[in-house]
Amino acid sequence: FILNIINHQSLIATKSWQINHAAQGRPIMEFGARRAQGPDAATYGARAAVIGGCTSTSNLQAASQFNIPAAGTMAHAWVESFSDELSAFQAWAKVYPDKVSLLVDTYDVLKSGVPNAIRVFKQVSAQGHQPVGIRIDSGDISQLASKARKMLDDAGFPKAKITASNALDAHVVKSLLDEGAPIDNFGIGERLITSSSSPVLSGVYKLAEEKINDQWIPKIKVSDSREKITLPGNKQVYRIYRQDNLHQAIADVIALADEHITAPLKVVNANSAATHVSQVLTNFNAKPLMQEYLGSNASPIENDLFKIQQFSMDQVAELPEATKRLVNPDRYPVYLTATLAELQEQLITKAQFMEEH
Predict the structure, then answer these.
(1) CATH, domain 209-356, list 3.90.550.10, 3.30.565.10, 3.40.1350.10, 3.20.140.10
(2) Which residue of 18, 89, 166, 327 has the fewest CB atoms within a 10 Å radius of its CB?
(3) Within a 10 A sphere around the Cβ of 299, how many other Cβ atoms?
(4) pLDDT one-digit tens code per residue, 264-298
C-alpha cells in the first residue's frame, strides 16, 4: 500500500513538474481523469499533479476531496448539441456570464470559432462581464494561436486568454513556447495523468533492519546486479549544501541514522557505474531530509495541498539547473558514507560466505 502511494504519486508529481517547468510559469490545468487507469488513479493523480505544480483540475472528486480549484471549458459535445456554434456560445455565456471560456475548434478555429467567440465576448462585455478567453484543442496550435491572438487583440480583447490542449507534454509545450506561440495556459491530460513517456517508477521495499532479542540487526538483499543490492541498516538522508549558500544543493548523502555528518566527509558514489568511486566532501552544510510520521516522535502531517506544492517547489529550486533539463539532464550526485558502504560490503561478503558453505 505504501509503495503504491509513493510510486504512483511520485511518478505523476515528477511528470507534472517537468510539464510545469516547460510552461515557464504559465498555469497548467490537470485534464486527465478520462485517461487515468481507474477512478483512484484519476483522483490521487490529480492530487500529485498539483504537488508537481498544476494549479487546478477538471476532476471534481479530486477538487472536492483535496480542496483544489476546479477548472475546465465546454466540451465539443456542448457545441454539437446546438443548431449552430454561435447559439452554443451564447447559451454558455447565459449560464456562465463570468466564466466565458469558449472551445473554438469544433468546426473551424479561424473562420467560425474565433469570430463567434468575439461576437459573444462583445455581448457579455456590454453587460458588464469580462470574458475569460478561448481554448484550442486541435490543429497546428502554434499557428492557430498566433492568428487567434491577433483577431482577439484587433477586436479589443487583449486580455482574453488562449488555452491550448490536445495530447500535450513537456516537450510539446516547450516547442510551442520556443516558437513564440501566444499561449497563456495549458490543459494537459493523458500524458500527465499516465506519465506516458515514463509510466513506471520502480520504487521497492526491502527489509533493512530487524529487531532480534532487543538488538537491531542490519539486513541486506544481494544480487548479481550491483544496482539491485540494497543498503542495510536504519538510515538518514542528508542534503549537502554549499557552505556559502544554504539554498544551493550539491549532493545527497545516505548515512546510517546514528552517524554524525561533518566536513570533511569521506563518501562513496552510489552510482555503480561512476568512474570516481570515492571522494572527500569539504566545506558544506548538511540538512537531514527524513522525518518520522508514524510513532511516538511523529511529525504533524500537512494536509494543505498548496503548502505541499510550495514545499515541493522550494526543494526542487535548490537543485542544480543542469539536472532539470528535459533532454540529457546532468546526474544529481548521491553518495553513501564510507561507514554505510563498509557495512554493505561486510554483509555482501557474509552472504557470499554463507552461500559457499
Answers:
(1) 3.20.140.10
(2) 327
(3) 10
(4) 999 999 998 888 889 999 999 999 999 998 888 89
